[in-house]
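Feature request, filed as a ticket because there's no other form

It would be nice if the structure record came with a short human-readable summary line next to the tokens. Right now we just get the raw output. Example of a typical job, pasted below so the devs can see what we mean:
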Amino acid sequence: MSTGLRDDDEGRQAWLQGVAADVARLDRSSSAERAADILRRSITEGALPPGAQLSEVELTEVLEVSRNTLREAFRLLTHEGLLVYKLHRGVFVPELDEHDVVDLYRLRRVLEVDVVRGLAERDPELPAGRLEPLQDDVEAAEAAALADRWQAVATANMRFHEDLVGLADSARLDAIAGRLLAELRLMFHVIAKPRDLHASYVARNRGLLELLEARKYGQAAADLHQYLLDSEQGLLDAFRAR
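Raw output as currently delivered:
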């Protein structure tokens, strides 16, 4: 069965090898949830594009789980909207539309801007080094941009926003953000030239980090709100240009 993960078999095999490497780092508890975590990360990092079909035969082998466990992982991700089941055809990564863009960004503004705004109250309790993951994400995006690796820039951007929400120190918010950003990455596939979408946000992420380092949380929240409005418009323009 063909997975449809990439246009070429070499790319598909590279993805499966990456999944196998993830499995090797996991323990054997909560197998369905951990399988779902790996597949969700594949979506967030752009390895599973919209319309890709997932093969039970290949994934049970590479994830080292039973078919029942894999099907439970599929159910978890279907509930999150990250997979869809098509009768008599199988399980696929969904293809999103403009309505999804608007809905997702509405939620992102509520979530991310509130987290940043709330840092003003939490500042005394934030641990030392709290911004180091964001610094790493910004530097990774800058290095990838210099190398003209725009898919890697997109992945670093996803991690920046995950780590931004992580400043709230809330497992529930982390889970919500993970699902939203996985959906967002699916939307990125509509961009014909990834640089056109991502280039300006490399510098804007650096600017947000500098505001957080300066403890200017109100300004950071306002800048992030506009940042998300601009990002939403860029994606809507890309959808309408197809």
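Something like this underneath would help us a lot:
The domain at 98-241 is CATH 1.20.120.530 (Four Helix Bundle (Hemerythrin (Met), subunit A)).
The mean pLDDT is 88.
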